[in-house]
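Q: How would the structure tokens look for this protein?
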Amino acid sequence: MDGKEKLEVCVTGGTGFIASHLIRALLHKGYHVRTTARNPEDVSKTGFLWKMLNAKEQLRIVQADLMEEGSFDAAVSGVSCVFHTASPVVINPDMNPEVTFVRTHVQGNINVLTACTKSPSIKRIILTSSCSAIRYDYNHTIEDPPLDESIWSNIEYCKEYKMWYAMAKTLVEREAHAFAKERGLDLVVINPSFVIGPMLTPTPTSTIAMVLHFITTGAGEYPNMRIGWVHIDDVVTAHLLAFEVPSANGRYICSGEVAHFGDVLQMLYNKYPKLKTSERSCSKEKGNNIFHTLDTSKIQSLGLHGFKSLEQMIDDTIQSFHQYGLLENLL
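A: Here is the predicted structure in token form.
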């Protein structure tokens, strides 16, 4: 974009897995970046961001909390684009998941979008959703055509199988589209699948924390889950395209190969036999092992040509864990 060296954008939740990679890419491309954290002065959480290229000149970290109404007003004021990647931190969603997990996600999203309506400088909002808002429904079969952006997860299915994350992502995204239409906001949504790859944060978060748990702890069960897998680099590229291509609109599935969690753990064991993945058995949970494929033609038409292979995703994740000293004596 012309003048991008002076263009400022906001990335919510800067200490997250996707957000941190996106911030690094934006800084590298010359954008000024404003990001949010609940406690910007906590260097144990935010210090790594200041080590990024161009951070001292082009990065600002401001305080904001998703659950505080008005908290994001200052964070988004005056920026050209908001990348909303943050999700609320919920301590114990099992106590009353529809209240402590689902509703907090919906309310946190509305707080950010409401703040965006107060800043006329914002030209586009890019929401990070999930393929979890697409793939869950009754009667999926292996013969079905690939799922595309017109498909939505079934809320009743999510309730029945206690898929609270999928339920939250679905409701958040539906509410975001409705809110944006009502308020005249230019909203583009990226729907990544299960994101893995190298970490930038001081400790693993989100999906890579889940992977680390299953390859370093002892015997137990792994999820009976069939999902798409995607490299963090491809997810960042999708977000940048959604920002920089004026014609971007609606939802975009961002995913590589679909594979069962057990198959991925077996791939890990075959390549890194010292890892403890072979000691686990598949859980008997129902509802998550849905046969499906994903249609990525829309994001490819926007400019993301080809996704990194599952093997590349795995290698980059494992090597990153090793570099951070998290796989001592296991490689």
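The chain has a mean pLDDT of 92.

Residues 93 and 100 are 6 Å apart (CA to CA).

Upvote if useful.
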